[in-house]
């Protein structure tokens, strides 16, 4: 079992391309925090990842209040934690986001073409989103930096995505949005893999734990059989270390002991099932390794702070409320041209 793939499946990653931007300087595009717009774009998600791919020219991108990153054609910049951020023709520029611009178009046609400036195009940027379940426990998001940058490689998914996105924006075809969304997801996984490959050898977090020969085996085992009645002795035998050595090594990388990690991961799986709303609590409890609904309910409330029933109800109410909200008044242009 590939633990990274397992986490990506469990958080229900979904991609979408939203803006096709052609710009001439000076220009700036400001994006709000992801939690303000996530359910306008992905009603079933509670966390938003932003990405921008530079198809032509150069620009800058960075989180609000942070240092911008220089970008050129073939680069992708990702904001995995959903930070408010700015894309611009020069560093240090600021704009005001407009929540209304993130409403899906009435005709359903995406990406939305955006023109900034009056001169010849010097930058062409494809902007999109990835929605996922951020809580109650998402070890991947917690181990990623605020900003990730990657460059295209010959025959890589970034170039393939760019070619398809450009083709779809000029001549849309049936099924194009689905293709762009799926390729967005693949592109995000590729960025994560490159980040993993470039991490320093002494880095210690969940993602770094995947490449450790012993912690990686332990994580794979827990994700392969989350319902198994694991003990630290069984897990150590599976990983090929002593009980104490595995416990120390696992905690150093992951930030918590193996059995606590297992409990948290079970709660993430349960929360995903509760959001879908189809199965009973007893069915969910059995699927993730609890002998009774009562035992599962106690563990869920201890870990999450709400009973499973309350979690399911509030998740459903939040999704319904978000869907019914009117578009907030504009505070400016989401893609503001600066003079």
SSE string: HEEHEEEEEEHEHHHHHHHHHH
Instruction: Please give the share of residues in helix.
Output: 40-55%
The N- and C-terminal alpha carbons lie at a distance of: 53 Å
Strand content: 15-25%
Provide the gyration radius in Å: 22 Å
Number of strands: 9
Shape: globular
Mean pLDDT metric: 87
Unreliable stretches, pLDDT < 50, 5 or more residues?
325-339
Largest sheet at a glance? 9 strands, mixed
Number of helices: 13
Instruction: Quickly give the structural class.
Output: alpha+beta
Key attributes of the depicted protein:
9 strands, globular, 339 residues, alpha+beta, 9-stranded mixed β-sheet, disordered C terminus, 13 helices, 43% helix
In short:
The protein has 339 residues and is an alpha+beta fold. The chain has 13 helices and 9 strands. The longest helix is centred in the middle third of the chain and has 23 residues.
Question: How would you portray this structure in words?
Answer:
This protein starts with a helix and ends in a 15-residue tail after the last helix. The chain is globular and about 65 Å long. About 45% of the residues lie in helices and about 20% in strands. Helix 7 crosses helix 8 (about 230-240) and helix 10 (about 260-275) packs across helix 12 (about 295-305). The chain has helices spanning about 5-10, 40, 140-145, 155-170, 175-200, 205-210, 215-225, 230-240, 245-255, 260-275, 280-285, 295-305, 310-325; strands at about 15-25, 30, 45-65, 70, 75-80, 85-90, 110-115, 125-130, 150. Strands 1, 2, 3, 4, 5, 6, 7, 8 and 9 form a nine-stranded mixed β-sheet that branches.
